[in-house]
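Q: How do we represent a protein-ligand complex in a form that can be generated token by token?
A: Start from the inputs.
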Amino acid sequence: MVSKGAAMGSASAKEGWSSRGAFILAAVGAAVGLGNIWRFPALAGESGGGAFVLVYIAFVALLGLPLVLAEITIGRIGQTDAVGSIKEVAKRSQASGGWSAFGGIGAIAAFLILSFYSVVAGWVLYYASVMGGELVAAIGRGDPLGGAFAGESVDQIQSRMGDLFGNPWLLLGMHAGFMGVTWFIVSRGVHAGIEKAATYLMPAFFVLLIGITIYGAFEGNFSEATAFLFTADFSKLTPQVINAALGQALFSLSLGVAGLITYGSYIRRSGGLGGTSATIALADTMVAMVAGLMIFPIVFAAGLDPAGGPTLVFQALPVAFQAMPGGALIGFLFFLLIFVAALTSSISLLEVPTAYGKGEMRWTRFVSASIFALGAFILGIASLLGYNVWAGVSPLGFWSIFEGLDILDTIDGFTGRVMLPLGVMLLSIFIGWKADAKMLQASTGLSNTTFRLWRFLVAWVCPIAVGLVLLFGLFPGLLG
Ligand code: TRP
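Then emit the structure tokens for the protein with tryptophan bound:
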């Protein structure tokens, strides 16, 4: 008799992590990304610093960490893609298989996020190559530790971003390059692709992060940066800021799109999941804080505006890399760092729909990864055209909270403000109320007290907090 796996072909061949450490690296890699290094500092800067940071940390602790554990647990019990895993948990809990819908919504959200994530990562790729060129030029001048953009005015340096955005072909090329690398790694599989990439890229990431932060502590304005990030001015806490902090916590931990269900399904071994989840949530939050302490000292030392928003990293920092000693080198390493972080995250975004195609449609990994990578690439073209050919197009402009947003910001806003919170809400109701408690406790490996605390947070705190934020975030008029 042929074994079940062989009979069903490669589409169902079991894949898995080779160790717990490999899973943690891959999951931290998924969590740490543009969200930590580009989005977090931009949001913290725009939202006034400390108060935002505090709310963000509270959301991570009270909602984020419990939900990370919830997603990983579903995956490990189900041992297949998100939809199949939720169905399995539902079946064992005598709940409706209809709950698997949030796995499907998650796969769609991951696909949508991937489409614009790759465009932004393309900007990073472009700046890495520009800074690489500046480094080569500095070495050519016999001054490898010199600054970048020798002899250029601030306007000239900053005009690069406008030039890039005005050039759809350049944007397209970078987007294609980034998506191509993501597709290549995911199509190679969990062990030979995702895990291998994480074991090389994550150590490189941490070395770069710590190196640049130490550099900033010496060369930048560290005290102003810590004061900005860690002194809370509560007058700045508006419902919008709270909404943004929740969205950022979910996005940064890769929650709400079933990404951790998918990664959790590749865990083969038994053993508790509480410590593993805490490690992931803590590492992600630490990286966001350190990224703030890496970027803001440089921003303040150069006298730049911390509230630069999305352009902070791309327009403000290059100016700082001109004046600082070693600026060309540090600038190059800085964009390399963001590139590495973005790559391990985009891999996880592509893996969610890829696993769905494998598990539910019975496609091979190669076919599934190719279809979704190509699809996200094509959709991403709309985002990048929004900066030039389709400038002024605002797809959800009729909805007040999305009014005036370009295509990329609309997809970012819709996934982040609507789809992620909705996904998390369904996840928390399912795990908090529907899933069988005995099965959950056995799989999470939590002690009685911790288990009760966890289930309370998931059952009550998550749906209520997310529900309120969703309500007021989507209908700001309710607050009068
Ligand atoms: N967490 C990643 C970041 O901070 C982005 C990301 C990867 C993500 N996978 C996700 C966001 C799943 C939401 C859902 O950059």
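The longest helix spans residues 101-140. The pocket of tryptophan is lined by residues 30-31, 33-36, 110, 113, 251-252, 254, 257, 259, 345, 348-349 (CB under 6 Å).
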